[in-house]
Amino acid sequence: MALVMPGQSAMPSVVTPPELESLAPVWSHLTTLVVDRAVGATLIDATGREYLDFTSGIGVTNTGHCHPRVVAAVREQAGRLLHGQLNIVLHQPVLQLARALTAVVPAGLDTFFFANSGAEAVEAAVKLARRATGRPGIIVFQGSFHGRTHLAMSLTTSKAVYRAGYQPLVPGVVVAPYPYPFRYGWEAEETARFCLRELRHLLVTQTSPEETAAVLIEPILGEGGYVVPPDSFLRGVEQLCRELGLLLILDEVQTGFGRTGRFFALEHAGVRPDVLVMAKGMASGLPLSAIAAPASLMARWPVGSHGGTYGGNAVACAAALATLGVLRDEGLVDNAAAMGRRLLDRLSQLARKDARIGEVRGRGLMVATEFGRAGGAPDPATARAVQKGCVDRGLLLLTCGPHDNVIRWIPPLVVTGAQIERAVEIFAEALAAVR
């Protein structure tokens, strides 16, 4: 093997299948590009070719790739303390981060548990709910994605591939319908009313409030298709939880930290959860997640009944503190709202000219273009072909939804108007080439 000196790269711009043999094939691959460096909304491969990254590492790099303030915070903390396990010692970054988060989460959610991934945070939230209430049942929603560890997978219903072959799953989970107007072919508020009625029906047919610990919901479906429910639905779910004494857990793993044009998506509907789940955009690419809950609820979690070695890692917490500062000081939440409106408008113009795009929807920079007919057959073939055409032209986009017929737009929140226009132009070219 050739010796690679600092500053040099021995990697090709594209890895071929034989070179992938050392990586488990369970990973799917949008591309086999080898990224040499990245900045803002741009990835640069080993040959110097640039790609507009409208995936953000699946909604992670909200401050853009390698934001200077985040990089500086990581470098400084790496020279002071890489890891201090929280059962043994405390460190300033985790204490400062907990204080800083109280300024952005809903009032009263004043106590935090830190982990590494969204799935870990979801599992922590469910474990807290079950221990605090003494009840086993969890209600989730059709199309949800809450992770791929065993408990989280049992809560996930967005695609069969995430669950197939892993039975038996964790018991005590029941599934309610999520208001997906395009799929049902109904008006939005009608769909919301139907789903709320079905949720109440579920509580007298499949489970009962007396054995239900919590309702777990994404305020916007992520992997399930970037489906935005009417605000009335989320308010109705909150009202039901208060009425029946159920805990409300909001999974904001993908929607949080400015992604929807508000700091958290819950702000659009004005709901307040008992437990808030956070991850992805929290630390600009370093593994960090958290749950927030009132101190009175956290106090019902027995000492030692949950934990983890790396949760609240010092370097990751330093990155999160810098991320919060960048989001605030650079107005990135407002930029997400403004650029999101621009993106929705431009994509809607395209949809009016091309019937293959059944719906354009989203909030902020969490936008979907769904291929197919309202209330009818999805069109994954066109979605995949357009996605490939975009990659070939230098734009990275992901698909989602049970049939992979939804292209999702998740650019970093630092994206500019010029980059939005270029991305839509590439998308239009790729769409026109698919016939």
Care to describe what's here?
- The chain is of the alpha/beta class and 435 residues long.
- The chain is 36% helix and 16% strand.
- The protein contains 14 helices and 15 strands.
- The strands form three sheets. The chain has a seven-stranded mixed beta sheet, with helices on both faces.
- Helix 3 runs parallel beside helix 11, helix 12 runs parallel beside helix 14 and helix 13 packs across helix 14.
- The longest helix is centred in the C-terminal third of the chain and has 22 residues.
- The N terminus is likely disordered.
Classify the secondary structure makeup into a structural class.
Answer: alpha/beta
Order of helices and strands: EEEHHHEHEHEHHEHEHEEHHHEEHEEEH
First-last Cα distance: 46 Å
Main beta-sheet annotation: 7 strands, mixed
Number of helices: 14
Concise synopsis of the structure shown:
The protein is built from 14 helices and 15 strands. With 435 residues, the chain is an alpha/beta fold.
